[in-house]
Every structure is written in structure tokens, then in C-alpha cells.
Amino acid sequence: MLEEFKPTWMVESIYSVSPEQLKARGIRAVFSDLDNTLIAWNNPEGTPELHQWMAELREAGIPLIVISNNNKKRVAKAVANLKLPFMSRSLKPLSFGITRARKKLGLAKNEVVMVGDQLMTDMLAAHQAGVRSILVKPIVQTDKWTTRMNRLIEKYVWRELRRHYPNLKWQEDLND
């Protein structure tokens, strides 16, 4: 059960993962959590680094799709400035949102990656969907109230992950 929370990669920031690194691993689409992964939960504008990374993905022909547990209205408002497609009410840690997005693109499981900042939702959903995952550090150290309970449980899961997988470490990028 513990391996269900183990990310494929742990990267400090998604912005350091290049389209070339993704393509070298056969990844043709990036699915991403929204809050504290792409944007700070309290700042929907995004950073210049995010906009640069999105432009690089677009130029490389790699779609970026937001997979969020939030409702459609909330996600639509949050991604309006980013002009990103999304799957709302994805029910993470279940695989529904990831699977719907993958099938919509007509891609195999090994051709997508799920990016997120939480073990309890994003990494578990990726495992449930049978896709690879990238865990990133949260953009800001505060969370919405709905995420705080997950963070408490996550501390215990982290302790066990580190005990069972002592080689788990944060990387600069996928080549590190």
C-alpha cells in the first residue's frame, strides 16, 4: 500500500522540467494539480516562470491540462488567465479525472505524467490511474483549509516512505 504514495520523480519545481526531458521519457502530455502546484492557491495570476514553462510546453507540442478536485466555476476562474484546459471535480485520489483527460487525448498510460504537491491526492491518483508522477514542493507554505487535514496525514506517510525508500530525494530536474 505504501508504494501507492511513492512518486516516480520528486522535483523541487515543475518549472525546471523541460519539454526535452519529458519527451525523452515518452511523455506527450502533462496533467497538473492547480493549487500550490501551478499557482499559489491565493494567487491565480501565476508567476513569470509558470508562463515561460507553459510557453515551452506549447512550443514542444506537449499539452498541459489541469486536473483539480475543485468545482468547475472555481477552476475556470483560476485558469482563465492561463488559458488552460481542465478537468474539475476529478475526485482525486481516485483516477477519474486523470483517466478522462488521458482518454480524451487518446494517449496511453505511459505517455502522460501527473504533477502535484500532495501525496494523499495527486500521487495516489496517479498510481490509481497507472501513470507516472512528479511530486513538487508546494509553491507557498500555506494551504487552503480543505488541504490542511491531508498535510497532517501526509507527515506520517512521508515518515514511512523515507523509512522504506531511503533513496527518495528531491531533484533539480528529471535528469538529476
UniProtKB/TrEMBL annotation:
InterPro entries: HAD-like_sf, HAD-SF_hydro_IA, HAD-SF_hydro_IIIA, HAD_sf, PGPP1/Gep4
Top-level taxon of the source organism: Bacteria
A Pfam match: Hydrolase
NCBIfam families given in the database record: HAD-SF-IA-v1, HAD-SF-IIIA, YqeG_hyp_ppase
Protein name: YqeG family HAD IIIA-type phosphatase
Gene source species: Limosilactobacillus urinaemulieris
Lineage of producing organism: Bacteria, Bacillati, Bacillota, Bacilli, Lactobacillales
